[in-house]
From TrEMBL:
GO terms for molecular function: alanyl aminopeptidase activity; metallopeptidase activity; zinc ion binding. Residues 457-550 form the Peptidase M1 alanyl aminopeptidase Ig-like fold domain. Residues 553-879 form the Peptidase M1 alanyl aminopeptidase C-terminal domain. The lineage of its organism: Bacteria, Pseudomonadati, Pseudomonadota, Betaproteobacteria, Burkholderiales. Its cofactor is Zn(2+). This is Aminopeptidase N.
Length: 880
């Protein structure tokens, strides 16, 4: 819809559908220019709704025929809907047949049915099915689907859809067909079809019940050697879900298909998951350890949706976190369980919290702030957010903390027993977890806990301590608050589980436990201490809150050296670094790292008992975006300069230690993407980056030369790319030669080229040279703005991930941003809306950046034919 037909949708206005659709039979004659779709539905009135016309959603369709009970009928078009009034009375089902055509080759939005690399794909979540046929395109209308696909056999030898393959064969004129039946009712957003030149890796498995299943991963010819890890991840996902929650695969086969043109990471269509190639394809020559981990996580996520999202789905799109937050939690637990030991689990937890803090917390504090369960939207695609996903997962994690691991599994079992095959709400889920655990704090505080779903913003927990040396009583006073967000000026207290411990001055643990904060302020007392303890607060990041406590350096150093909670050891290092950065920024002071901090970092780096992966996390400075969120007024270039100076000084001060770390951890053996091996490569990569940075000051070319040699000789992409990044980030003259060589090596590997583009667009902006490089990259023969991955690799890497380069004093970055948002909006509004959010936090910018950013946003908002996707973002950004 365009301006003039925009309509804000409110959760409070939800009404059940006036009609139900019980069965759907779809016949596709696939052709890129003109695909014919015959849709036969069995429809009945909803007896609980007053009689009214049937309104079917449709978009960019050519309507050829409408039959009711085999007879022609009158209809009209209103606001993009097909309206049928002359329908049979009563509650008996009737047959409705609709024949339409569409043009998949012209579908640049990648929603509905589209063509990518001469193959057909679909993306129907959230409202893409209406671009395929007229339908009640809403998640609470669940039907059984039978799908027949017909196409040219030579061009499209593989024909896939949801469910089980029941028939296939040849037709006249070189065509063939395949018929698929999905035995489970599903909403239209879970429909999928794929047709094209594809090859397949197969694996047969047996469930604990003895039932056999066929797993398949489909990719383009030439990519089959990159599917082993995806298949292994899928098998691990199936086994984990059955072992952890007793949830068995319910179809004869489960399919994954990869495409290079995809707006999202992947889609959980029932039995036929469609993936961005980024989250399927991997071998050691083309994929990094991070890629391997992401593939494992995303494959798990989409498979876990088979139950949490497909078997039980959302009543309406406001309930999106019902499936996404819950499934993110499940994929996080899956990755942690696969990681194995405590340290590897902690690394995964820290990585997840970093995403929350650098992406979701700013969203909570910006113009697009919304509750985990939003109250309104103009364009639902804008609410596939880190709040719905990552914060939603934290809400589920708190439920597990309040009822226990076994109690949570029991609650999930009740949830499926009660709601299998239905479309339900976030409240239904919370109710099931609570009822399965009637004696838990969740059950006792359920109404208050639900505020996590209804209230936007990040709660702040302020902690004040007092120690009475005479009585030996140590007290903690906890105060919670939550700032105003759009439409919600006042907030009520949350239920906040706070895991905590107390350490003595030597770092020995004195006590540990969990306190559930429910009041605006509460005081905890701990008697019997001869000296003031060191508090270890919010262990494991037990709640998605901002913890405000004035730790001293002495306390933080004690926690960093001794805390039994790995998360809080890392957090201590983050606080030490952030505190110093803020002092330099606020005081406009020269960066001079003090000896205690440097020595603490050296101790961590040299620590014989700490895992390499954990060391790499501790020694990585806080992100510029995280530092910016701690400031009321933000000068991104000053933040960038301070962080770079801190890195430079760490490089020089720990030079000998970095040399040791690199030599001790560089891996020359067989490649394995396991946590221990990945951690060693991560630490070696960080060390190499610091050694190349140190060369900027010393002028010594030994380590840049070693990095270039490592780049050439590396046996895996992780080591090769780490060496390339070390040269690029340090700005060494060898970087240009390495970049040219890298492109020549991987010119036929699209996902690797995405890394090549992104590295250059996200490079440190030392002389204002990044924007010219970005513009030059857009002219490169391998750049294609219509491919979301490639657009993200250049445009997003600059606008969203390179604040020092984007926030230029001459505002040229903002001009570039506005031009790209409008250009992308005409091609793919979803991608454009994501880019539009790069200036979400413009009101925090220091002048003159603030005024220039507002002008750029207003320039986009003034464009008359903006999509709803972009208009909603820029309008909310400009609102007071």
């Amino acid at each position: 819809m365009r301006e003039g037909t925009s309509k804000v949708i409110y959760r409070a206005d939800y009404q059940p559908p006036a009609f139900w659709i019980d069965t759907v039979e779809l016949v596709f004659d696939l052709d890129p220019a003109k695909t014919r779709v015959l849709n036969r539905m069995r429809v009945r009135r909803n007896p609980d709704v007053m009689p009214q016309p049937l309104r079917l959603d449709g978009e960019e369709l050519n309507l050829a025929r409408v039959l009711v009970g085999g007879q022609g009928t009158s209809f009209k078009m209103e606001e993009g809907q097909l309206v049928l009034e002359n329908l049979p009375e009563g509650n008996e089902p009737f047959e409705l047949e609709i024949f339409t055509t569409c043009a998949p080759a012209k579908n640049t939005k990648l929603m509905g049915l589209y063509v990518s690399n001469d193959s057909f794909f679909t993306q129907c979540e959230a409202e893409g099915f209406r671009r395929i046929t007229y339908f009640l395109d809403r998640p609470d209308v669940m039907a059984s689907y039978t799908v027949t696909l017909r196409a040219d056999k030579r061009k499209y030898p593989v024909l896939l859809s949801n469910g089980n393959l029941v028939a296939q064969g040849d037709l006249e004129d070189g065509r063939h067909y395949a018929k698929w039946v999905d035995p489970f009712r599903k909403p239209s957003y879970l429909f999928a079809l794929v047709a094209g030149q594809l090859v397949c890796r197969e694996q047969r498995i047996s469930a604990r019940s003895g039932r056999d299943h066929l797993l398949q991963v489909y990719v383009r010819p030439g990519d089959l050697d990159k599917t082993e890890h995806a298949m292994n991840s899928l098998m691990a996902s199936v086994a984990w879900d059955e072992a952890r929650f007793g949830l068995e695969l319910d179809l004869e086969r489960f399919m994954i298909v990869a495409t290079s043109d995809f707006n999202m990471g992947a889609m959980e269509n029932k039995g036929l998951n469609i993936f961005n190639t980024k989250y399927v394809l991997a071998n050691q020559a083309t994929a990094t350890d991070t890629d391997y981990g992401n593939i494992e996580s995303v494959v798990g996520h989409e498979y876990f949706h088979n139950w949490t999202g497909n078997r039980v789905t959302c009543r309406d799109w406001f309930q999106l976190s019902l499936k996404e937050g819950l499934t993110v939690f499940r994929d996080q637990e899956f990755s942690q369980d696969l990681a194995g030991d405590v340290s590897a689990r902690a690394v995964k937890r820290i990585e997840d919290v970093r995403v929350l803090r650098t992406a979701q917390f700013p969203e909570d504090a910006g113009p697009m702030a919304h509750p985990v369960r939003p109250d309104q939207y103009l364009e639902i695609n804008n609410f596939y957010t880190v709040t719905v996903y990552e914060k939603g997962a934290e809400v589920v994690r708190m439920m597990q903390a309040l009822v226990g691991r076994e109690g949570f599994a029991k609650g999930l079992s009740l949830y499926f027993q009660r709601h299998d095959g239905h479309a339900v709400t976030c409240d239904d889920f919370a109710q099931a977890i609570a009822e399965a655990n009637p004696d838990s704090q969740l059950a006792q505080r359920l109404e208050q806990f639900r505020r996590w779903y209804s209230q936007a913003g990040t709660p702040r927990v302020r902690v004040q301590t007092h120690f009475d040396a005479v009585s030996g009583i140590y007290s903690l006073t906890l105060t919670q608050s939550c700032g105003a967000t759009p439409g919600q000026p006042d907030k009520q207290p949350f239920v906040i589980p706070i895991a905590l411990g107390l350490l003595d001055a030597e770092g020995r643990e004195l006590t540990s436990g969990m306190h559930v904060l429910t009041q605006a302020a509460e005081t905890l007392t701990f008697p019997g201490y001869s000296a003031e303890p060191v508090p270890s607060l919010l262990r494991g990041f037990s709640a998605p809150v901002i913890l405000e406590y004035d730790y001293s350096d002495r306390q933080l150093l004690t926690l960093l050296a001794n805390d039994t909670d790995p998360f809080n050891r890392w957090e201590a290092a983050q606080r030490l670094a952030t505190g110093r950065a803020l002092t330099y920024i606020r005081g406009d002071l020269p960066v001079e790292l003090d000896a205690p901090y440097v020595e603490a970092m050296r101790t961590v780096l040299r620590h014989p008992a700490l895992d390499a992966a954990f060391k790499e996390l501790v020694l990585t400075l806080p992100a510029e975006t995280y530092i910016a969120e701690q400031l009321d007024v933000v000068d991104p270039q000053r933040i960038h300069a301070v962080r770079e100076a801190m890195r430079q000084q760490l490089s020089q001060a720990l030079y000998a230690d970095w040399e040791w770390a690199y030599e001790a951890h560089k891996d020359s053996g067989a490649y394995r993407p396991d946590p221990v091996s990945s951690g060693r490569r991560a630490l070696a990569g960080l060390a190499l980056a610091h050694l190349c940075l140190a060369a900027r000051t010393s002028g010594d070319n030994v380590w840049p030369g070693k990095a270039y040699q490592r780049f050439k000789d590396a046996s895996n992409m992780t080591d090769r790319f780490n060496a390339l990044a070390a040269l690029v980030i340090s700005g060494h003259e060898l970087a240009a030669q390495a970049l040219q060589r890298f492109h020549a090596m991987f010119r036929n590997e699209p996902l690797v080229l995405d890394k090549w583009f992104a590295l250059q667009a996200g490079a440190p902006d030392r002389n204002g040279n990044v924007l010219p490089v970005v513009k030059q990259l857009m002219q490169h023969p391998d750049f294609n703005i219509r491919n979301p991955n490639r657009a993200r690799s250049v445009i997003f890497s600059y606008c969203s991930a390179n604040p020092g380069g984007f926030h230029r004093a001459d505002a040229a970055g903002y001009v570039y941003w506005s031009e790209r948002v409008m250009e992308l909006d005409a091609i793919n509004p979803q991608v454009a809306a994501r880019l539009a959010r790069a200036l979400d936090r413009w009101k925090k910018l220091a002048e003159p950046l603030r005024g220039a950013a507002r002008e750029a946003i207003a320039r986009v908002a003034a464009k008359p034919d903006l999509s709803n996707d972009v208009r909603e973002v820029v309008t909310r950004a400009l609102a007071d």
